[in-house]
Design goal:
Number of domains: 2
Structural class: alpha/beta
CATH architecture of the largest domain: 2-Layer Sandwich
Order of helices and strands: EHEHEHEHEHEHEHEEEEEEEEEHHE
Low-confidence stretches: 360-367
Number of helices: 9
Strand order of the largest sheet: 16-15-14-13-7-12-11-8-17
Radius of gyration: 20 Å
C-alpha cells in the first residue's frame, strides 16, 4: 500500500483526493493547508485519518510515501524540494514552477535523489485524445499541413469576479500557466518538438475587486495568441481566452494532406468532459464523428470531469512508486519543457520577436 499526502484544499479537494481515493494500492493519509481549520474540514469530509497544520508537517511525516502538490505555482519549488529531500515521490500540479530556473532545480533534485516525479498533464489521459494520438501516429490523415487550437471560455469574463493569485503574474497566475502549459505539453505529445514561437499576450479585464472590495490591477494575461512552428516545419496557431462573453470550448484541428482530424468539446463549465473525435475527407461536405473504442474509455465516471483522467495518471504514478521505478511520464522533464515554452512566449511578447525553442535533448517525434 502506498501512502499519500495531499497539499492544497482547492484543486486538492476537488480532484486530487477523490481521484486518489478511487485507486487501488493507495491510501490517502491526510491533507495539509495553510489554513489548518480548512485542512481539518477536508479531512473530515473525506474521512481521512489525519490533517496537517502545514505542508512542512505533512512532508516530514514518515508514514507518507508520496506527496501531491495542488497549491499556487509560487509555492511549488519550495514544497517539492523539501518533499524530495525528505525522500518522498512527488506529483505536482502544472505549471511546474514560476520559471525555467525553478523547474530545472526541481528536476535536478528529483533525478539526484532517484525519486519518482510527475506533473498533472491530465489531457493525455482523456479517451478522445488517446485515440486521436494513435490515429496521428499511424499517419492516417497524411502529412500534416497545419494545426489550429482554440480554447475559448467565459470563466473570467465577468469583471466583478474577485482578484486572486490566478490574476497575479508574480504568483504564477495567467492564462499561459492555466491553459497554455497544457497546450504546449499536448502539442509536443501529439506532434513532436516545437522549433520556434511568437506570442501576443493581453489583459482585457484590467482590474478586479479583492476580498475587501478594493479594486486591484490585473497583470496576468487573460487572452493569448500564439504562432508555433514544429520541428518539421508545420505551422500551428493557438488562440486562448477566458474572458469571452460567450465561449466555444476547446478544439484542436489537425489538417493533413488526406484528411482532417478534430478533437473538441463545447462544455464551458468542465474542461475534462465532452471531448469527441471527428474526421473530414476531401469531397465530403460534413465531418463525421469517430467512435472511440472501449479500450480507451476511462471506465468510472465522476461529477467533475477532471477526476477520472487525473486518477488514471495518478494510478500509473502510484504503481511506479510501488515497484520502485523512477521514470514515469509525464515527468518533471515534461514540466520543465512546458515551462521553457511559457518563458519563451513571455519573451516573445516582450520583444515582439520569434523565439527559438528547439531543444536537442528532445527526440524527433511525439513524446510517450
Amino acid at each position: 500500500m502506498v501512502n499519500v499526502g495531499v497539499i492544497g484544499t482547492g484543486f486538492g479537494r476537488r480532484v486530487h483526493i477523490p481521484g486518489l481515493s478511487a485507486l487501488g494500492n493507495t491510501r490517502v493519509v491526510g491533507v495539509a493547508s495553510r489554513r489548518p481549520e480548512l485542512a481539518r474540514q477536508v479531512a473530515t469530509e473525506f474521512s481521512l485519518p489525519r490533517y496537517f497544520a502545514s505542508w512542512r508537517e505533512l512532508v516530514e511525516c514518515p508514514e507518507i510515501h508520496v506527496v501531491t502538490i495542488a497549491t499556487p505555482p509560487i509555492t511549488h519549488e519550495e514544497i517539492t524540494l523539501a518533499a524530495l529531500a525528505a525522500g518522498k515521490a512527488v506529483l505536482c500540479e502544472k505549471p511546474l514552477a514560476l520559471n525555467t530556473a525553478q523547474a530545472a532545480r526541481m528536476l535536478d533534485a528529483a533525478r539526484k535523489g532517484r525519486h519518482a516525479h510527475m506533473v498533472d498533464f491530465e489531457f493525455r489521459e482523456i479517451p478522445a485524445w488517446c485515440y486521436g494520438k494513435q490515429i496521428l501516429e499511424k499517419g492516417e490523415i497524411g502529412p500534416l499541413r497545419h494545426v489550429n487550437v482554440t480554447w475559448i471560455l467565459h470563466t473570467w469574463a465577468d469583471p466583478s469576479r474577485p482578484w486572486s493569485w490566478k490574476t497575479d503574474r508574480a504568483q504564477g497566475g495567467g492564462l499561459l500557466g492555466a491553459f497554455g502549459v497544457h497546450v504546449f505539453d499536448y502539442l509536443e505529445w501529439f506532434l513532436g518538438p516545437i522549433r520556434s514561437l511568437a506570442a501576443q499576450l493581453n489583459t482585457r479585464v484590467a482590474s478586479r475587486p479583492d476580498e475587501s472590495g478594493a479594486w486591484r490591477t490585473v497583470d496576468a494575461e487573460d487572452c493569448c495568441h500564439l504562432l508555433l512552428e514544429l520541428q518539421h516545419g508545420t505551422p500551428v496557431s493557438v488562440t486562448m481566452s477566458t474572458v469571452a462573453p460567450v465561449g466555444k470550448g476547446h478544439w484542436i484541428e489537425f489538417y493533413g494532406e488526406e484528411r482532417a482530424l478534430i478533437i473538441g468539446s463545447d462544455n464551458l463549465t468542465d474542461y475534462g468532459k465532452g471531448f469527441r473525435l471527428w474526421d473530414g475527407s476531401p469531397g465530403s461536405k460534413d465531418i463525421r464523428e469517430i467512435p472511440i473504442p472501449a479500450e480507451y474509455q476511462l471506465g468510472r465516471e465522476f461529477a467533475d470531469g477532471r477526476i477520472a483522467p487525473f486518477a488514471r495518471l495518478a494510478q500509473r504514478f502510484i504503481d511506479a512508486v510501488a515497484e520502485g521505478e523512477v521514470d514515469v511520464r509525464p515527468s518533471f522533464e515534461d514540466g520543465l519543457r512546458a515551462q521553457v515554452l511559457i518563458d519563451a512566449a513571455v519573451e516573445s511578447h516582450r520583444t515582439h520577436r520569434w523565439v527559438d525553442v528547439s531543444n536537442d535533448r528532445l527526440e524527433e517525434g511525439p513524446r510517450a
